Amino acid sequence: MNSTPYQPLRSSDGQIRLLILHPASEHDAPIQCFLEPAILSSNPAYEALSYTWGDPGNGSNISLSNHDFLVGDNAAAALRRLRWKKKKRVLWIDAICINQTDVDEKNTQVPLMQKIYGQAQNVLVWLGEPTDGSILGMRLLQNRMASVGWHQWKIDKDYGKPTLPFTKSFRSSIALMNRSRLIQEQSNGEVRELLDRPWWRRTWIIQEVVLAKNIQILCGAEVVTWDLVASLFKRLKMTQAEVQVFGVKLSDRNIYPDQMYNLISRYHQEWHSNGGRLDLLDVLYQFRTLECTVAHDRIYGFLGIVHPDVAAKISPGYHLDVPQVYREFARTMIQVTNNLHVLNCTRYWSGVDIGTPQQEAYSILEQSRYYDIQALISDGPDKNPRRGWARLPDGWERIPSRDRSLFRDNRDRTKQASESSPLAGEQPVRAEHFIKQRELPPGWTKVWDNLGRARVVYGVGETTREQKLRNERELLRQKLSRLPSWVANWECPSRWDPKPFITFSLSQPRYSASGRTTAALNSHPNPRVLSLRGQIIDEIRQLGPVWHPEPDRPPISRKGINSLVEWESLALIELPDCPYGGAEGRTHALWRTMIADYAGAEAADSDDWAYIETWYDRTGWGRELPDMASRGVFETVTLEDEIKELEVVMNAQFLQIRPVPNLRTREILKHPLGDFSHRKKKYGGYIKRIYDACAHRSLLVTYGGYMGLAPWNAQIGDKVAILHGGETPFILRNIKGTEDFSLVGEAFVYGLMAGEGMSDASSRAREINIL
C-alpha cells in the first residue's frame, strides 16, 4: 500500500483530483472519502468549496483513499456539514485535492483554477459554524421573517433581554423608538457579523466566486444563495434611509461591511458579461489588503480571472523569492501591455503601516458584554432619565444569562462576579447611538475561532502562532524593503496610499501624457534596473503641505483644512513665464488640478468651476459634521434634519457664485426641486473627485510654472518625467552621484496630461534608467 493518497497528475492534460465524500447518517460519524482523477475537458460533475484554512488547530483525521489524513478544523467542519445522509457527494477542495507538499504540483494546478471553479456546478462558500446570533442573520437573509421573530425572542431571553424589556418601552416615546431600533440592530447586526467573518478577507476567494456559475453561502446547516444578500440590502434601503449629505454617507447606522461583497459581485458580473476578461492590475489594486498565507498569491491568486494573454505570460513559481516574483511581474506587465500602468501602482510604503482599523462588534449579544444594558441614561437636559445601554468602566464585563446579569472587573485577579453594576447609583450617562456600541473599548479584542465564530474578549494576549506570523511578516517586509523603486510592493499597502489617477480597466484612457508612444524595455545587464525611453520635462520648485484627511471621507467644503488653503496661495503666485497665461489661467488650472481633470472630451464643463469655488467656502457656509455615534436616538434624529439643511445652504452659495441665467428662470420656476437635485448631485460628485485626487498628495509647482499633484513623499528638486507608454507623468528622483533615478510615483500635471510635452519628443527622448 502506498504511503500517500496521492498519485501523479497530468496537469498539462487538465487532470485534477475530485473528492468523493461518503454519506453518513450521524453528524459526528468518521469522515470517509476517496480521491478520483478527472479530466476537466470531460466536464465532470462536482461542486467546489471556497473556505478559509485558518489556524489548523488540533486538526481532524479523516480517511482519504484508505489513508489517515489530517485536515484543519474548518475543513473537517465543512465536510461534516456538506456530507449527505444517503448518497455520495463529489467535491473539489484545494487543501485536499492538491498535494500541498508538492511545490511542482501546486505550480501546475494553480493555472487550472479558472476551469475548476468555472466548471463547478456550485461554488460553496463556507463561512463556518453558527453562533446563536448567526442563525438569526441567516434567517433574515432567507427572508424567513416568522423564524427571525421567534429566534430573536429566544436569544433575547437567553442573553438577559439586551433589547430591553417590552413593558419599559411604553414609558416614553423615546424609549419606544429606542427599543424598536435595538430590535432592528439585533437582526441587522448578525448579518454584519456574517459579512465580517474571516472568509471575506482571504485572497483566493475572489477568483473562486467571480468564476462561479452558481454560488451558495453556508453557515452551519443554513444555506442562502449569493443574490439573497443583495436582496436584503435592497429591502433595507427602501425602509431604512442612510444619513447622507451631497451623497456622502455621514453615519453607517444602516451600512453593512459589504464593500467586499459589492466588489466581488461587480467583478462577477463583469466576468460573465465581458467574455471572461478582467484587468489584472485593477483586480490586484482593489484587493491588495486581503490576506494570504503565501505572499506569492497576491499575484497568483488572481490569474484565473484575467485576460488569457496576460495570465499565459505569468507562470506560478512558489520556489522563487517574493521580491523576485514581484520584480518579474512588473517587467512582464510592461512587455505584455506595452504601457506603464504597473508603475502607477507603486506607492511609498516603508515605515508606513496599513493602520489599525477600529475593531467593531456587530452582534449586540457581544456588545452587551462591555455595556450595562439596564443603566440610567439621559437623552438631553430637558428629558427624563430612562433605562438603557451605558458603557461599563474600563475592564468591567457583563456576564449575560437568562435570569440576571452578573458583572466582574477583569483587572481583579480574583475574577469574582457581582450582581451589582459599577454604574449603579451613578448619575445618568449620556445616551449613545447604536453605531457607537460597536466600537470595542480599550483592552477588548474581537477574535474568531477556527470555525469562523466571533467573540469579544478582554485582555487577550498574542498567541504563539500570531507572534510567529508577525515575525515572519516583519522578515518579509525587510526583504521587500530592498525592492527596486519601480516595483510595486503588493504585500505592504499603507494607510496613506493615494487612489491611482488612472482607471486600469478603461479601454480608452482618460490621460495620454506620452501621446501615442508605447512602452518598450531597453536591455540592461542589471535585472534591478528598469531602462525606458522618456524625457525629463521639468523640476519641482515648490510643494504644498501634504493632505492626509481625517476622517476618511470627502469633506463637504474646504473650511478648516488649512493645508488646502495653502495650496491655493502657492498655486496662484504670479510667475514671469506662466504656461497658463497669467493669474486667470492659474485660477482655471487650479480648479481643474483639484479634481485631476480628465483630458480631451471627458474634461469637466468650463462652467463647473462654480462647484469648486463653492467648495472653497470663502464665506464659511460649511460646518463641521457631528459625530453621529456620540448621540442618542432622539438627538440623532434632530441632527439629521439639521444636516440636510446644509444642502439648501450650499445651493444658495452656488447661486451667488454663478447666478442662473434669466432665460432659464421659467424652467426653474416650473421645476425648482429638479434643478436643485441636479446641483446637489453634481456637487457631491465633485467633492468625491477632489478627495480621490488630493488625498495623501501634495500640490506641486515646477520651475516651468506648471502645477499639479505629487505623491505625499515627493521632494523639492524631484524631476517631472514623461516616459514612453505612460498615461500620466511620473516623479523621478536623481540618485546622488549617478545619472540614474528612483521612482517616486505617478503625478498629475495640468497642461501635460494630453501629450502636450511630446511636441519635440523625438529630439529630447533619452534612455532613463530607474533603480
Automatic annotation (TrEMBL):
Q: Which residues form the Heterokaryon incompatibility domain?
A: 46-208
> Which InterPro entries does this one have?
HET, HetReg/Transcr_Mod
Q: Region entry Disordered: which residue ranges?
A: 407-428
Domain of life, per UniProt, equals Eukaryota
Q: Name one Pfam family in it.
A: Het-6_barrel
The UniProt regions of compositional bias labelled Basic and acidic residues, in chain numbering, are 407-416
Name of the protein described by the UniProt record: Heterokaryon incompatibility domain-containing protein
What species is given as this protein's source? Fusarium mangiferae (Mango malformation disease fungus)
